[in-house]
Description:
Blueprint: E1 2-3, H1 23-28, E2 35-43, E3 51-58, E4 66-73, E5 80-84, H2 95-103, E6 107-111, H3 126-152, E7 158-164, H4 166-177, E8 184-188, H5 194-209, H6 218-232, H7 264-275, H8 301-306, H9 314-320, H10 332-345, H11 353-357, E9 361-367, H12 375-389, H13 392-396, E10 399-404, H14 434-444, E11 451-456, E12 462-468, E13 473-477, E14 489-493
Parallel strand pairs: 1-2, 5-6, 5-7, 7-8, 8-9, 9-10
Antiparallel strand pairs: 2-3, 3-4, 4-6, 11-12, 13-14
Amino acid sequence: MKQKTLISLFLLPFFICLKAQEASACWSDLDIPGATLLSIDSIPAGELPAHVRVVLISRPAVKSHIRIEVWAPLEKWNGRFIGAGSGGGAGYIDYNALTAGVKNGFATANTDMGTSPHVDSLLFSPQKWEDFGHRATHEMTLAAKAVIRKLYGRPPSYSYFVGCSTGGQQALMTAQRYPDDYNGILAGAPANNRTHLHALFLWNYLQSNKNQENKFTRQQIESITNAVLRTNAGKDGGYPGDHFLTDPRMAEFNPETLDTCLTCGQIQLLKLIYSGPVNPKTGEQIYTSIPLGSESAGSGLFEQQNDPIKYHFYPFRWAFGSSGFDTFDFNGDLAKADSILAPILNANNPDLETFRVAGGKLLMYTGTADPLVPFQDAVHYYERVIEKQGDEEKTQRFFRYFLVPGMFHCGGGPGPCSLGQNISSLSEDSDSNLFAALVKWVEKGVAPQQIVASAYDENGNVRFRRPVYPYPLFPHYIEGTNPDLPESYRGVVHERGKVAIPAGKYLK
């Protein structure tokens, strides 16, 4: 490892580098192949506990440039390490995650995934695409563990990865490719079927812009969601007064019932959006659609029909350059993009046997009202893992999946969307905190049976609380009880599957 600058460290009894004047020699043998150590800062206690901040650049390939930061407490380290995920096209260090980890006694690491200064800087850069797809997360993990060994004189007792969206992709990719990196993984709204998720964005955009007169207003989109809820709320086990669906797979909706507020062209457009992207030549399903009841959510139909840059066409810009996509062919063009990108970006492999044998535990969660990474793809991935394992019970011994009613993308929404899914909400309460439940499962062998999730008002007060269960269990309201209380619900098994199934070539 190369070393560019070094700032002296605090003198602490447990420190391997005991004397500041010896620190340079001590850290010079830090063995992280291909990495450059930029700085080591000792941060005194203040708003945060005293901690060390280590900044590195990793170059596993010639064109790689992966930024990594590791923050580690100088006092009261709890013996654990957290790898924190990113979001969108990455290209930044998530200082909120690093701050939250250190505050809670964790050594914590984050990476820009090699896409700084911006995801579009990776045009014609296959090595950097591979960094984004899987390599940067592994490099971050190796670097962090090396720093921890040097700093504390031992490896972490337990290692955890926590991420949502792109962080969910990182999570599943890590379980599939690097099964020994983490003891426990928390994967939220995983964008693991990356190229085909982006095909959904492009599909919705192109269908909506074929005829500008067919584009929906915000008011029309609100009316669509309201009609879906009016027809279906409470019929899937939820409380009849809910303004969200508990299980959209059970919902039924005919866009033609909205003919008083939509034109014929808009009704046909809505049907195309609900179909999800389809290969025009073969008729094969490419990916699922946005869920019923998510149309008016943030990042929903209005945004997806109006802002192609925001909605992540970057994989196709990587594959084809920066040209427009008005004539994109969902047969030939998608096949070309998949041939280039799918092997390094998509985390679709259902074979988690090596992760299971290594003793790893995986919790996955998605929101039923998430239009950005639709839950249906996660359902199908989980079903394929069960098929590969050969048994649902065997799968649930190491991998459990929580579907959160009415939650938007990674959080927010009208449902019980707060369940300790973020590093910033770490707590010791495993009954209402997904991460705490993961720690308890990994370290004590107690698998989570339910999580009591909360919904808050704009002032931070609890509106209601509701249990969520491992799929295929869903919360069912007990008639005549108080719908705001978690004890007013019981877990009921719903039929498994029941989602659009992409053709096999779109699962690679």
